[in-house]
Amino acid sequence: MIAVRHLPMLLTVLTVLIGLAACAPPEPVRVGYIGGLSDRVSDLGIGGLQGVRLAVELRNKAGGIKGRPIELIESDDQQTADIAVQAFDSLVERHVLAVVGPMTSSMAMAIVPRANAAKMLIMSPTVTTGDLLGIDDYFFRVIPATQEFVRTNAEYYYQVLGLRRVRLVFDIRNRSYSQSWLDEFSKSFSATGGTLLTPLPFTSSEETAFSTLARQALADRPDGIVLVANSVDAAMMSQAIRRLDTRVAVGTSEWAATERLVEIGGKWTEGITVAQFFERDGRMPTYVTFRNAFISRFNREPGFPETFSYDAANVIFDALAARQGNQTIKQAILARRHFVGAQRPIDFDDYGDTQGKTFMVGIRNGAFVPIKH
């Protein structure tokens, strides 16, 4: 038994402990990020991470989520399925509430089954594969699926550029994305009256023989060649093609359209066209605010990975702030559905997919510029 004479001391200690507990900082809200940060084509993953970091920093400056600071836990999937799964499992073990990412379709295909099993929401900024379209799962995205981009490309190539015979060169390392692109382009371009020549697959690596690939792509003298590849491979491939043929039109899928395409490809990328969802000359107040903050923080212009990752993070933060009772994050997003993005509204359907208008841009004088047509 506790002696009566000790009670005042115990009450004093208890009061101090209660006071310390009241002064302790609130438990942070943990959110994960997963993307390719060390692969040879890490521009997508690093750009995405910077967009998320900025979103976290700005939200914490504004008070966090219901007074709790956001803690970002970063993971590198190295663009390898097994590592991506391990990275995701590690985030789950660290009790994150949601994950921004992944940045490529092949990594999403590896992670989504784990996310569904864990009932962990993943919000991708840049995954467009049709393989995950219209499914009631824990995968959400802030940009349209592949078919929106492909349709815009196909119509532009046929109706504006007058291309009739086109060949696709596609990277099977990101098969879910590239196969979706190939399937949708085949349907869309054929519907306009065009002919798709035998597609040419390759596997992205340091050893890729781009000169050989270019000669194979130019066989049968196509009017145009479309590169469904990352920015580095698209830059190398466009150089190899232009060295052999300056006549043929060259386009890329939206995957390649980061600033690194121009940095690496230089003059060889001049004239390349691509459909995008990102407006580099956007003048919306929300985008101007984001752009200025990004330039101030990272000393460079944001591109589509940075902008859409910023959007993906803010959707999660807004949903966490709006949650009521025992609502899951998924339920909170679907209850609200409408969110404000940096460049345009983000409206989710029942399956976590979004729609939006895409448009053509081209590389002119070493920069991406909108194409008026």
TrEMBL record:
Belongs to the leucine-binding protein family. This is Branched-chain amino acid transport system substrate-binding protein. Keywords: Amino-acid transport, Signal, Transport. It comes from Propionivibrio dicarboxylicus. It comes from the Bacteria. The lineage of its organism: Bacteria, Pseudomonadati, Pseudomonadota, Betaproteobacteria, Rhodocyclales. Residues 28-327 form the Leucine-binding protein domain. One of its GO terms (biological process) is amino acid transport.
